[in-house]
């Protein structure tokens, strides 16, 4: 079987949670013997995004050429997969060419809601809460839940000593991060430049900033991390929190629907605007006894999600194969 994924950009140059989730799902199809092509719809953002085509983990990635790219590649595909801004175009072209189409839903934003009730599309939800939320508006016959799959062994390492935020844009909590660093000059902080949003940088003596990191290198980030911060305005799941828990790293998070579901009992939840609460939580979790207890909870939750990952990917692959 040949699968065509229509996306805006792809890993390893664009490594947002949605892109890494899709890549892991496509890897699972390759491992079952299927051919997978990824077609980018946007021109390069900068030189680091520029390429003439490459293969990663058995997946062939094709750069944006023109608006006619899908018309050239879709006829030879058996199944089309898409997400985010490519949803409308992929669904319309798939109908026209008679191809099954799988849409991965990463949020409950207006554009997602607009296409979430299409009856002839296979709807894939990245969490149970999102499934329940989107199906309020229009229950669809063909759907499945695939929680962003994490191969824990690829991220597992020995935790380090830093308090870390991954993605320095304001919505992910960069202001909280830098305010904590100012309040806690005795603590070392680590910020990682993210894949999307305006990245905020402040020069503070106890803050180190790493540039954008591809998925294959993230274990090095967690190898320097003692506590992970996720003061996000919105998370429909929260992939980096799950990655961190694979190494027993405690996560402090704003209680979004997604983070409550993904972190479960292992998460430490503090409202985003409660700076005193964030400082108190960080100091508590840096204490050895509290950290060890939280680390055990994180490892337990990671093992639970590993079991779900196996079932989710099996269900996903079988759905594509039977479409």
Would you write up a description of this structure?
The protein is α/β, with parallel strands linked by helices and 323 residues long. The chain folds into two domains: 145 residues, Rossmann fold; 155 residues, Rossmann fold (3-Layer(aba) Sandwich), CATH 3.40.50. 37% of the residues lie in helices and 19% in strands. The protein is built from eleven helices and 14 strands. The strands form two sheets. It has an eight-stranded mixed beta sheet with strand order 3-4-2-1-5-6-7-8, with helices on both faces. Strands 11-10-9-12-13-14 form a six-stranded parallel beta sheet, with helices on both faces. α6 links the parallel β9 and β10. α8 crosses α11. The radius of gyration is 20 Å and the shape is globular. The termini are close together. The model has no long low-confidence stretch (mean pLDDT 96).
Defining key terms:
single chain, 323 residues, alpha/beta, Rossmann fold, 2 domains, 6-stranded parallel sheet
TL;DR of this structure?
The chain folds into two domains: 2-146, Glycogen Phosphorylase B (Rossmann fold); 152-306, Glycogen Phosphorylase B (Rossmann fold, 3-Layer(aba) Sandwich). Helix content is 37%, strand content 19%. It contains eleven helices and 14 strands.
Which runs of at least 5 residues are low in confidence (pLDDT < 50)? Answer: none
Number of helices: 11
Query: What is the total domain count?
Result: 2
Named CATH architecture of the largest domain: 3-Layer(aba) Sandwich
Main CATH class of the largest domain: Alpha Beta
Give a count of the beta strands, DSSP E runs of length 2 or more. 14
The shape, in one word, is: globular
Mean pLDDT: 96
CATH superfamily of the largest domain: Glycogen Phosphorylase B
List the strand order in the largest sheet.
Answer: 3-4-2-1-5-6-7-8
